[in-house]
DNA sequence: TTGAAATATAGAACCAGGTTCTACATATTT
DNA sequence: AAATATGTAGAACCTGGTTCTATATTTCAA
């Protein structure tokens, strides 16, 4: 497409270009996202019980300390690692951040 | 207290010194946290509906985009800002990070 | 070695957070 | 004018997150 529009239009174009993939993948809801500042959201992985445990052990912290970083109870971490329960949306986001950037990213 | 113990003991001492405050404040559970690596956890604030809205508007994003960053649905963000529901542990942690470091910190 | 603290498992019960859906109301763009 | 983006509203559902108790093992200090 030709880039001869106003600044806002270019931003909008950039938005759609970067987000359209997510949209088509069904990862985000239908419309929206004007002014989506250029940054690309890191995709949020799903974590198995073992992956969560491996992640925590990689960071060399106990369940209790790990829980403190995530602002969750130690029981929740235990339940995740045992496969008793699975982390929800925000918790998965935090786990993704830790997986990619380490615990210090959410200190 | 005298600092004449081994390295591990000093670490432990540092742990207790930094975490004892939280412990005494009743913010963390009883014992624990050996090897708490020196970093200090940023305290997780509680957010009112208005604060959440102000935070989002400060970042200049729509509810939908804000929700994407937090890995939550746009409805949840709307419910938070209306006071219909309140963000839980992990969600509050993410909000705290955004409040202090901006949206880019969780991109 | 003895005891206290740290760490992790297990299960149960409860509540509210997060999801999904629909419908409606305004802007804002094209 | 038509289409899109944005936000409100409410309801229903489900499970995540909390809290509690109890138990087992390990680690550490006296």
Automatic annotation (TrEMBL), chains A, B:
Pfam families: HTH_3. One of its GO terms (molecular function) is DNA binding. The keyword Transcription applies. Residues 52-87 form the HTH cro/C1-type domain. Keywords: DNA-binding, Transcription, Transcription regulation. The keyword Manganese does not apply. It comes from the Bacteria. This is DNA-binding transcriptional regulator. It comes from Magnetospirillum sulfuroxidans.
């Amino acid at each position: 497409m030709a880039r001869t529009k106003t600044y806002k239009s270019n931003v909008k174009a950039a938005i759609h270009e970067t987000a359209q993939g997510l949209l088509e993948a069904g990862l985000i809801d239908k419309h929206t996202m004007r002014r989506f500042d250029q940054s690309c959201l890191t995709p949020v992985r799903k974590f198995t019980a073992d992956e969560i445990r491996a992640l925590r052990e990689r960071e060399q912290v106990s369940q209790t300390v790990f829980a403190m970083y995530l602002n969750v109870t130690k029981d929740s971490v235990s339940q995740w690692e045992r496969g008793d329960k699975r982390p929800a949306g925000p918790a998965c986001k935090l786990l993704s951040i830790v997986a990619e950037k380490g615990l210090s990213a959410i200190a």
